[in-house]
Design brief:
There is one protein chain. Helix 5 (243-257) packs across helix 10 (427-440). The chain has helices at residues 7-19, 24-37, 177-180, 195-206, 243-257, 287-298, 307-315, 362-375, 394-402, 427-440; strands at residues 41-43, 56-61, 65-70, 83-89, 94-105, 108-116, 129-139, 144-150, 184-187, 212-224, 229-231, 237-240, 264-270, 318-322, 325-326, 349-351, 380-382, 405-410, 412-414, 421-424. It is α/β, with parallel strands linked by helices. The strands form three sheets. A nine-stranded mixed sheet has the order 1-2-3-13-4-14-18-16-17, sandwiched between helices. The chain has two domains: 7-92 and 241-445, Aminopeptidase (3-Layer(aba) Sandwich); 94-224, Aminopeptidase i, Domain 2. A hairpin with a 4-residue loop joins strand 7 and strand 8 (144-150). The two termini are 20 Å apart. It has ten helices and 20 strands. Helix content is 26%, strand content 26%.
Amino acid sequence: MNQETGLDDFNSGLLAFLGCSPTPYHATANLASLLAAQGFQILDEAQPWQLSPGGRYCVTRNGASLIAFTLPSQAANSISGGVRMVGAHTDSPCLRVKPQPDLRKNNYVQLGVEVYGGALFNPWFDRDLSIAGRVDFMTSAGKLDSCLIDLRRPVAVIPSLAIHLDREANTARSVNPQLELPPVLAISGIEGASFDELLLTWVSEFGERGDASKVLSYELSFYDTQPPAIIGLHNEFIASARLDNLLSCYLGAQALCESEDNNFNLLICTDHEEVGSTSASGANGPFLRSVLERIVAESSEQLGKSAEDFERLIRQSKLLSIDNAHGIHPNYMDKHDANHGPILNQGPVIKINANQRYASSSSSVAFFKSLCLEAQVPVQTFVVRSDMGCGSTIGPITAAGIGVETIDIGVPTFAMHSIRELAGSEDAHNLYRVVKRFFNANSRDA
């Protein structure tokens, strides 16, 4: 458990995870599989739990959010020593297929889409797009069922308008998402077939379900089929879709898998962060508190079941909220505070905001810096320009929801919310090393 994964092996695993996780559903399923392979028992929220000291457990909600945790062994600390939590999110901005998407214009077959989250529109044009997500259907026996599908091959494109027809495209281009983002799939090749009928074929072919008789609902997204890659003259960069924030999910899971059994450690990866986190499976919902309360209740020999015991646990706990940070862009340096412009491959970033868009405090910053010093990992700081607005994370939401001391951190990134983002090839591995130290530190150090 204590062996550290090297940089090349870590990045190889990260790229594989990014490439096979085109939606939050796939990301959660892949995280659960990774954890199960490392001895984590999959729990069902609807069933009773029987937890044991030294046990490793994982639970999902709505197939798109996940909590995994390890309990200390009998010979080590009880859970009354607090919980070390790492939080990230499984969703990314994208184009979602509408419920009644069928469009036919001039004999072209298109699908209507809805923008999910704060996506950059322009990079979606002229990309080789595929479709993935969850499909809910009725079986031939009349039962409800669902499955994940991933077409894996390019089936659509959003063609740009030629510069000859839009002479201001390079100076004043704007994109109307209703009119200009519907992808093109075919030239009357499936004329007469509805999208639901096409989905039945895909469920059978790609979802490994041959008994679907009627599609009832779905959550499907378009995604870029260009695979993740290590790029740069000296392999300095990772280029991929969904670095925000599957990179953080992966490094958190990898660190948790390799953690020792002397602490109560927990990883939470939630859906819907890009749209505010307010859902049953989002960070602004009851998922985390519900799981923590059940763990407290199941650990009654170590800790009582009263509200006071839960609050005592939280008072001794910490949360690392991990979400990507804005690296200083060499072509747009005026968009950054000159003293707080993180550089790729120069260490993880502490995110600070006086208006609590990030949850970092002086004490949580000091704690994280001490971890970085011990791990011999450099650390940077990001503060948004005082004349610009600031994004946010699950950090303030979780801190406000359960009262846990929190710090917002992440790896510096270019092109955040683009269809293809860029990070340093060393940064995720360095942050993984710090998170692993966080999980393995002695209770008195937390």
